[in-house]
Structure formats: C-alpha cells, structure tokens
C-alpha cells in the first residue's frame, strides 16, 4: 500500500491541499478560496473537507499524516496560532487538535514560511542542501530556517521571525512593537508605502511599481534601491550569524530581482566578511506558492 | 582506565590547558602566558608542551582527544584560522594537523567563543539547556550558538559571528568591512572609545569607566546606557531569529550589569514580540574564563 501524506497551505486568500508521496511527487491537489470572513469554524470545516476529498481520491493508499502551514506565530507543542492579526478567530484556539479530532489522523501545525522553507529544501531550490534560510517577501516578510535538514523551531516554535530583524533602529513602526523591522523596509507592503509617499500613483501594488521601474521611472527604481539595500542589510546579518551555504528569496516581489538584487548584493558584500570568505549563494526560490504545500506534506514523513 | 580529555584555551594573553573527565570534573590545569611575539612555532610548542605535561600527570588514564579554542574565524574541516588580525602567523596555517602530528593524538580546533558557549552548556549557566547563545563582551564581541546541544558551525565553521550583526547601518566602522557592527557599540573597546570621545580621562579601561559610573559620573553612566541599548538591540534580533530559551553574557564588562542591563532589557522588551510571549532568559554566564577550557575539553567527548 503506497504511503502518502497530505499538505495544506492556509493562506489569507487561498486554501490549498495536496496529496504527496514519499518521493515528493504531488499526486493530487485542491485549491479553494479561504473564507476567513465566515469565521474560524467554516475555515476549519473547509480544511477538513479538502483533506477528506483527497483521502477519498487516494483510497488504497496509506495516509502517513497531515501537515498544515498557517500564517502567524506558532506554539509548536500546543498546535496553536498566537498573535495573528490576520486570523483573529484562531488566536489561542487548539486548531491542530480540533482538525486532528475531526479527521481521526495525526496533524502537524507549522508556520507557513517554515513550511515553504522545508518545501524548497525537499523539492525546490534547496534540494541536497541541509542548511538554508528562506525569506518570503510578501505583505510582510516571513522566514524559515532549515538547520541539519529540519525546521529550526526554538523553544516554542517562534524561531525564524526574520521579518522582525531590526535593520534601522529608528525606522518604520512595526505591528510587533519594534521600529525598523526588515519587513517594514523590504516587503511588498513597504514598496507600496514608499510608492505612496513618493506619490507615484493611487494605490499602486508592488507589481505596478515594478512595471514603472521597467518603464524607466526613476522614483520606482529608487524604491527598489531602498528595498534591496534593506534586504541586503538583513541578509548580511543572517549570513554573519549562520554561515549557511544557501539563502532563498520568494514571494510576489521576486520578478523585480533585476532592480533590487544589485543594491542587495552590494550591502551583503560590504557587510559580511563571511560572505566574502565562505561560498554563499543567494538565489530565488523555485516552487512559488507550492513551496508551502510541499513543505507541509513533508513534515509527516519527517516525524 | 578512566577516560579524560584535554581542553586548551588559547587567548591573546593567556594559554590555559586542563584535563577534564567525562563528568566535567577538572582534574588538572596549567596556565602560562601566551607568547605571541615569539612567533607561531613557539606558541604551538607551548601548547604541545602544556598538553604533554598534563598527559604525563594523567598517566594511567585514557586520553579521548584534545580540543583547542582559538580566537578568529575557523575553517572547521581544515582545522585552520583565517582572517585573524591578532594571530598573524596562524592565518591559513594547518595548526590543528600540526599539533595533532606533534602529539600523536586527535585534535579538534574550535572558535574560542563557540568553545565558551559549549562550556557554559556543559558545566555552567546552560546546564540542562540544549539551545542557547553566548555573547562574550571583550575586546570584540564573540558569539557561540548551541543548537540541539551542539555548536552550530554553518558550512565552514564561521557561524556565530554575533559581534558582526549590524545594529546601526551607518554606525562605527568595523575591521570586518562593515559599519555599525554590534561589537563596535557594545564591547569593552567600544566603552573605552566612548570614554575617550567624552574626555572622561586618559586611556581609561572599561573597568575604570565602570568605577566612574559607580561613583555617580553621569557621562560614565551614559556610556553604559548607550552600550546596553546597542546590546539590547542585538539581543532582540537574536531572540526574534532563534526563539531560544537562554542567552548568556560573559566577559570583563559583566560587573557593570547594573548599569547596562536596564537599557538592554528595555530594548529587548520593546523590540521582541517573541521575548514578550515566550519564556526567555538573559543571564550572566558563570564560568568566567574557564568556560572556554570546559568547552574545548567537552568537544572530544562529543565527536
């Protein structure tokens, strides 16, 4: 009986689930909209329904377990989300145990960026690498640290909050209480805020700013210069701390690589003796929004 | 036949060696001056002589191996020191293999701060804790990361260069090529530079500045305020990255805890959501300058 696991990626917009075998082959996939507005119980029901649907389609196979990647700080042993502004009903609710009870299967809860890092390690740009860091550049900046082939969790599961590295001590205010967090200066949201400050246009997305930069708009290019500089500063600190061989970047900002990577690399070269003396790659991740699915599916095979 | 290992701590001033058994009991100890001025071969000869002396005194015991903690960036697989300004003759020299050849025993080379972190984990303030970080506040700031009970090395052994976390992007110039490294704002040397800038006195040591602060000198207290703020900023970033349960501080600046710890803790509380939500201790290390000896001696038992 062929073994498989089910990975779930619960995002603010989409809820994805996939059945994956031990070799990392995606056997089947479901994607629906996340209905956060309908409340926690509806979302949990949607997750359970998606998993059951996959389980029926995989009849004859043996389900090893379910991994679920969710946004926010995770208490890994308790299987709970804490301090999540995006998913208010989930805060401090035993979401892992509730889903496990409804399914009658073991469930592992994981932070979405940690899951994405694990996915890239398993089937993406980090194949064959045991130590890597992934930064997801989106609304915020998520981080996942893979050390010795496994997610680094820290004592309760909050390790890897790399978007909250302080890069400018008196920089922009962050929801976490800090000033100058990496994610306030290098995320898609940060790009949009800068575009707003520079009056580049009404409600521009990071993608719009990228297109303006491509068209030769100096201010749009300056925005990526600033964002790349901030990102490079954060990466240099990470390289000095970890001396890992691989740092991956993912997220919607990635197409603008041509604009933000040069100032990013300039900072890294300048600020990291380790980068200049130990082989270190900084590269785009390759699995896109399926990284989290692969990673979530990988977890039951590891445990 | 009782097993023991020999740990060596090679500092710029002192060369210490000790025989330690598997329970962490220090059986014998030698301390001499480090004679860097006499050149590399003399220093290596002094190390080998000290180890042989201990080996003779331990006749009847079984030597498991030798661990040596040295300052500077380490290439762990090659057993070499690189980029060390303090030990010029050692740069890129196969020091581990040379000592091993002279002794006829296996030798492990380790960065001194990594060894000290391991020592505190084994027999000091980190007993019973598998994940901790040590910052040594001295001439520079060294760092050691213990993850899952072992030193985190990264790909070549340069992990843990925590003195080179950028805390002020346009801060003081550092020998590593960066600006605003933690060690340029929170080491003993940084305290001495600030005392010099504020014209507190001629060639004051960090200890002198501490005594002035104790005597009520406002500028001396401001210096520790600044140093504690910088340290807190670095610690907050580390806590956000690692979510480890324990962060230890050691070094000659430690007695000034009463002056630098309050601003340090203020920064940590403000800048780390993780600190506010996961039990996290920041404490003085307890083994003083014997931490490196214990840690170096621990390594052969681990390998």
In brief:
By secondary structure, chain A is of the alpha/beta class. The first copy, chain A, has helices at 40-57, 95-103, 112-123, 183-186, 188-197, 206-214, 218-242, 257-271, 273-277, 291-302; strands spanning 3-10, 14-21, 26-33, 62-70, 73-75, 80-82, 107-111, 132-137, 141-147, 150-151, 246-250, 281-284.
In the CATH hierarchy, the third-tier topology of the largest domain in chain A is known as: Nucleotidyltransferase, domain 5
Cα Rg of chain A: 19 Å
Give the low-confidence spans of chain A: none
Question: Greatest interface and its residue counts?
Answer: A-B, 49 and 49 residues
Portion of residues within helices of chain A:
25-40%
Tally of distinct domains of chain A: 2
Oligomer: homodimer
General shape of chain A: globular
**End-to-end distance of chain A, in Å?**
20 Å
Order of helices and strands of chain A: EEEHEEEHEHEEEHHHHEHHEH
How many alpha or pi helices of chain A?
10
Q: In CATH, what is the class of the largest domain in chain A?
A: Alpha Beta
Strand content of chain A: 15-25%
Per DSSP E runs of 2 or more residues, the count of β-strands of chain A stands at 12
Q: Which structural class fits the helix and strand makeup of chain A?
A: alpha/beta
Strand order of the largest sheet of chain A: 3-2-1-4-7
């Amino acid at each position: 009986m062929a073994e498989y696991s089910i990975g779930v990626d619960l995002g603010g917009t989409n809820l994805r689930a996939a059945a994956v075998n031990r070799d990392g082959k995606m056997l089947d996939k479901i994607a629906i909209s996340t209905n956060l507005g309908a409340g926690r119980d509806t979302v949990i029901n949607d997750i359970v329904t998606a998993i059951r649907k996959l389980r029926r389609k995989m009849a004859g196979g043996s389900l090893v377990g379910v991994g679920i990647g969710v946004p926010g700080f995770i208490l890994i042993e308790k299987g709970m989300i804490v301090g999540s502004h995006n998913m208010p009903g989930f805060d401090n609710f035993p979401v892992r145990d509730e889903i496990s009870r409804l399914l009658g299967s073991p469930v592992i809860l994981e932070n979405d960026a940690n899951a994405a890092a694990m996915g890239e390690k398993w089937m993406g740009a980090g194949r064959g690498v045991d130590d890597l860091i992934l930064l997801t550049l989106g609304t915020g900046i998520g981080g996942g640290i893979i050390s010795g082939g496994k997610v680094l969790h820290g004592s309760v599961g909050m390790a890897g909050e790399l978007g909250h590295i302080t890069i400018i001590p008196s920089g922009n205010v962050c929801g976490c209480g800090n000033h100058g967090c990496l994610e306030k200066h290098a995320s898609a949201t940060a790009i949009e805020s800068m575009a707003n400050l520079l009056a580049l246009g009404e409600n521009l997305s990071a993608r719009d700013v990228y297109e303006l930069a491509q068209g030769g708009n100096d201010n749009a290019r300056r925005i990526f210069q600033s964002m790349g500089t901030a990102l490079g500063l954060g990466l240099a600190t990470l390289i000095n701390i970890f001396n890992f061989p691989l740092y991956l970047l993912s997220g919607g900002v990635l197409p603008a690589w041509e604009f933000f990577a040069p100032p990013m690399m300039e900072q890294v070269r300048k600020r990291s003796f380790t980068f200049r003396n130990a082989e270190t790659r900084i590269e785009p991740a390759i699995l896109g929004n399926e990284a989290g699915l692969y990673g979530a599916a990988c977890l039951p095979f590891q445990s």
